[in-house]
Amino acid sequence: MLTHPGEDTLVASWRALARLSHGAHLSYRDRSVAAVFPSWAPLNNAIMNGPTTPEAAGAAAAELAGVFQAAGVPTWALWLWSPLTVLEPPATVESVAGMIEDTKTLVMTRTLTPGALPSPAAVRTSIEAASLATDEPVRALSEPDDIPGLDGWVFVHEGAAVAGAWSYLHGTDCGLYAIGTVPHLRRRGLAAALIQHVLADAYRRGARTASLQSTRMGVPLYRSLGFAPIGRYEEWVPAATPSTP
Questions:
Q1: Which of 33, 56, 94, 160 lies 20 to 30 A from 131 at CA?
Q2: Cα pseudo-dihedral 200, 206, 211, 217, rounded to 10
Q3: Beta strand ranges found along 21-149 (DSSP E)
Q4: Tens-place pLDDT, residues 37-63
Q5: Position 115 confidence tier, pLDDT thresholds 50, 70, 90
C-alpha cells in the first residue's frame, strides 16, 4: 500500500502514460508496484512497499527482475523510500542483493493557493512534444493526448517550445514530471514560468496540492516556487545487464 505523499499520483500517472506506449503496463506485487514500459526506457521503475530493510529490498528486487525480464526490459530502477529530506547522507540500506546504488531524488510537495500566474507562452501539447522540448527547440507542436488528467506542457519562446513538463491531476493533487529547459536557455526563469502556469491551471481544476521528484540541480528552483522536501527515493539498478541472444 502506497502511503507517502505524491506516490498515489505518481503511480496513477504511470498508469495513464501506459496508454501511450505499446506493451506498457503496471505490475502490482505484495512488495512493490512496477511501471513496465518496453518501448520507453526512462519509465521502467518500481516502488517498494513496506519497511525498507536489506532483506525486504533484496526480495522485492528478485521478484521484480523476473517481471522486467519477462517484458524484455534489461534496465530498470528500484525506488526505496526514505524519510530523509536531504540528498547527502548514504543510502538507508547498505546493500540490495543483485543491485547497485544509482541516484537519489527528493520528493517535494506544496499546498496550492490562488494567485499563481498563468502565462500566455505556456501551451498544452502532447507528452511526446513536451519531452522533446526539454532537449531541443520544437517548432511543430502536436495536439494534446486525449487522456483525462494527463497533460503535456511547453513554454514557447521566439516561436519554438524551449521548456517542457508533464502534469497529472489525481484527485486534489497535481503531479509534475520531466521538467526541463533546452540547455542554452537554462537559468532564465522559463521553467519557473511554465510551472507557475501549470499550477494555476491545476488549482483552477480543483488541485490543492502539488508533488514532484527533484534531482540536486532542480532543488533551488522548486524551493523558490514554494516546494519543500518531505522525503526521498533512493534508486537502485541491476548490478549487471542480462545479455541478449
A1: 33
A2: -10
A3: 25-28, 32-36, 45-48, 77-82, 99-111, 122-125
A4: 999 999 999 999 888 899 999 999 999
A5: confident
